[in-house]
């Protein structure tokens, strides 16, 4: 799951991002509302949740939520704020926030509220994802292969899992390497240009070590495709 974190307090932003990365989320962190809107309008990134501070430079979190809803964008938003009065909560929810977390808070509560958003919107991250004979277990970072019981279990690294899941979610579509890179790596990481190809080689090598056929094919000059006919 890719998260947009909008928080102008540097220490808090770094802390939240580190916690989320440790929980295997892909996180883009920005520090003002205008930059956040630019990210949300980008053709390269598809966010599944936004964590937004209320008091932001340039465009407030409240204004960002209102703009999202005016554009019919259903992105779930968790609002962070030091404004904890009932009227503030009402204003935030009326502006389009899906949940509200008052500062200061403990990170465990932040993670719990993210899990609650996922339960209310299960399409954000299912427990498992199955295409053909392949099933991804989100809870254990494991790929299950084979229709017979018990299936073969292949442990994946976080990035291998994210890559496999993204292509499974877009099965039979050709996805460019640039699109994959922007979707699965933080935008401020500036990964090397061939990082997708390198990660793909590692994934294919691991599948081969488990005698598992790789359903992901390379389309020269275009990108990669999870081929359901393989």
Automatic annotation (TrEMBL):
Domain Response regulatory per the UniProt entry, residue ranges: 2-118
Pfam families (UniProt xref): Response_reg, Trans_reg_C
InterPro entries in the record: CheY-like_superfamily, OmpR/PhoB-type_DNA-bd, RppA, Sig_transdc_resp-reg_C-effctor, Sig_transdc_resp-reg_receiver, WalR-like, WH-like_DNA-bd_sf
DNA-binding region: 126-228
Family matches, as SUPFAM superfamilies: C-terminal effector domain of the bipartite response regulators, CheY-like
Domain OmpR/PhoB-type: 126-228
Keywords for this protein: DNA-binding, Phosphoprotein
PROSITE patterns: OMPR_PHOB (PS51755), RESPONSE_REGULATORY (PS50110)
Full protein name: Response regulator transcription factor
4-aspartylphosphate modifications at: 53
């Amino acid at each position: 799951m890719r998260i947009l974190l909008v928080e102008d307090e540097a220490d808090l932003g770094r802390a939240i991002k580190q916690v989320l990365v440790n929980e295997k989320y892909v996180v883009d962190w920005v520090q003002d509302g205008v930059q956040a809107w630019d990210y949300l309008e980008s053709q390269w990134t598809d966010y599944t949740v936004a964590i937004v501070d209320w008091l932001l430079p340039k465009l407030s979190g409240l204004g960002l939520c209102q703009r999202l809803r005016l554009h019919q964008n259903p992105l779930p938003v968790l609002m962070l704020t030091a404004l904890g009065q009932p009227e503030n909560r009402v204003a935030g929810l009326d502006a389009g926030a899906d949940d509200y977390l008052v500062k200061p808070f403990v990170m465990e509560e932040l993670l719990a509220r993210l899990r609650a958003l996922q339960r209310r919107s299960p399409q954000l991250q299912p427990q498992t994802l199955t295409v053909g004979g392949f099933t991804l277990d989100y809870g254990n970072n494991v790929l299950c292969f084979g229709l017979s019981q018990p299936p073969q279990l292949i442990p994946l690294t976080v990035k291998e899992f994210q890559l496999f899941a993204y292509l499974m979610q877009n099965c039979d579509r050709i996805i460019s390497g640039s699109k994959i890179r922007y979707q699965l790596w933080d935008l401020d990481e500036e990964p090397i240009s061939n990082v997708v190809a390198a990660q793909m080689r590692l994934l294919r090598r691991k599948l081969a070590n488990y005698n598992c056929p790789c359903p992901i094919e390379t389309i020269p000059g275009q990108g990669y495709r999870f081929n359901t006919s393989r």
